[in-house]
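Let's practice the habit of predicting before peeking. Look at the sequence and jot down your guess about where helices and strands might fall. Then scroll down.
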Amino acid sequence: MAIDFSKYDKQTDLEGLKEDTQKAIENGGEFEEVPTGTYEVSISELELTMSKSDKPMIKIWYTILDGEYENNKIFQYQLVDTGQKLAIIKPLLEKLTEGEIDVVFDSFAQYANLIEEIKDFVEDNSLEYSLEYGENKKGFKTYKILEVFEG
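Done guessing? Here is the structure:
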């Protein structure tokens, strides 16, 4: 039985996908590194998952909405296996919903549901963000939501 892929053709910017494929080929199959800076982004992925080292981790993928790096991704991965690491991501998660959802940790099961609730809120309200993507003195990437917009 053959799979009908026509619905995906209708949902996808096929020309954009072809251009992205060509860019990836020209970059040796690697993602083009987005330089630090401030970008208007949407959230394309947000979930509590497990890292390769089997530790709980928040995964956020931002899609750049305009400019030279339009449609490129910025990837944020934050382990949340200690109180300090939970504290690092808390302000960003709160900003994603402009404080509409209280970000508290009681258990990992509860936290996974909370992250899903935040994701649903972002999608339901078509939120976009001004993201400051930087690097600290130790070379670690930094992420700060400067503004929230309705898309």
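How did you do? The first helix runs from residue 6 to 11.
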